[in-house]
Amino acid sequence: MRKCQLWAGLCRPAFGVVLLILLSGCLEQSQTTVDDQGARISSFDWGLPEHIPLPREPEDNPMTEEKFQLGRHLFYDTRLSSNGTISCSSCHHQDKAFSDGLAQASGATGERHPRNSQALVNVAWNNTLTWANPSLGTIEKQIMIPLFGDDPIEHGLNEGNHEQVLRSLQAEPEYASLFAAAFPDQADPLFDDLAWDNVVKALASFVRGLSSFDSDFDRGAMSAAALRGERLFNSERLECFHCHAGYNFTDATTDRLTTYNTLLFHNTGLYNIDGLGAYPEPNTGRHEVTGRADHMGQFRAPSLRNVALTAPYNHDGSVDTLEDVIRNYAAGGRLRVSPPNAGDGRMNPLKDGFIASFPITEDEIQDVVAFLESLTDQAFVTNPRFANPWTDNSNKDLIP
Ligand code: HEC
Ligand code: HEC
Fold this sequence. Notes:
This protein is mainly alpha-helical. 30% of the residues lie in helices and 1% in strands. Strand 1 (335-336) and strand 2 form a beta hairpin.
């Protein structure tokens, strides 16, 4: 089997180019996944309710408890950034279902990310990663972006500093045993040329293990208002269930029972600049990646699990409350009267067919909100398994 040698080309000058080529190699390889629900390729304890199908695992990175635990340490470690200021948990806080409460966060150098930090909830079941990238099929591939991307800069790792960052990880005594346990077949998993590949695999394993299926909804413990909201959510009047479908409340779900993956993206009429359907740069959705005019404004329907904890909303954090999200749907899109990006989203010519105005009362809006709140999983946001493992405060996420 061909190894995914992420760092083989690091010393060459064209860092970005080399990285891209190697990344596509990874994607090719990790597309082979195990589909047989019965045959577990790892003994990882997913701890899922019986009716939830197991998620896929990449063949070259099967889940293990040891990789999950190593990934957890790395996720909360600010040493994994160019200047020691940023960890994954800077933008992904457990108490907010691993979102951050900001419209848009800033990376290690202060550069603002154009998109809203996503919640990390049941990511293992998503058939594509991020708000709108049809070519990101694995968490491993996605994680390269916050670590090494330069537009925007998040962790800020690059050709010039990655060796120094690796040295700071090598200097941590806990990592020697964590890496050895996670990669038992390698003689020196934190030192040889697979070190960065291992970091990425461990981080992906931790993210893949962040599952949430223990809300009031799951336990059948919903209030009367939440039950009324659920009926509205599943009604042909509101149409929510078409896109926020199934056990993870998104039509972007894949699992080991999925035989055919359709990658779906939708335009919900948030913008309509100049009346031509345009969304503001660089947040043009699937269009940003494919360049196709008909993909303008199309985004992946996010899972709605724990959504009550992840305000502000939508791909750019431009909607403050769940009530306002619902009001935009009821209007059939969002009217933005004042600049920047003014335009009548209700008239967006590229809007999805299910996005059409509908009548709704204030009480009904509150019922839908109660339903969405019933998808909050308190055990998930307080689970010590997902929390910061570092007892020594010096290197953990210091950003509140
Ligand atoms: C500066 C803030 C920031 C940091 C630091 C950051 N992220 Fe993110 N994360 C985001 C944003 C913003 C998105 C959405 C990106 C997009 O749509 O292009 C995202 C998306 C993701 C996704 C996709 C989730 C999904 O459902 O598709 C994963 C997985 C993820 N981040 C994991 C990580 C990991 C692991 C790290 C640490 C290596 C990390 N992030 C560091 C802001 C951040
Ligand atoms: C046509 C498909 C579609 C329909 C119908 C739909 N949604 Fe969405 N939903 C999406 C997409 C796509 C996004 C992300 C859009 C963006 O950010 O540009 C989204 C975003 C959201 C968000 C914000 C989530 C977050 O993490 O920021 C909420 C809440 C939500 N929808 C609830 C609902 C409710 C309630 C209904 C029914 C009234 C509904 N949706 C109907 C596709 C849909």
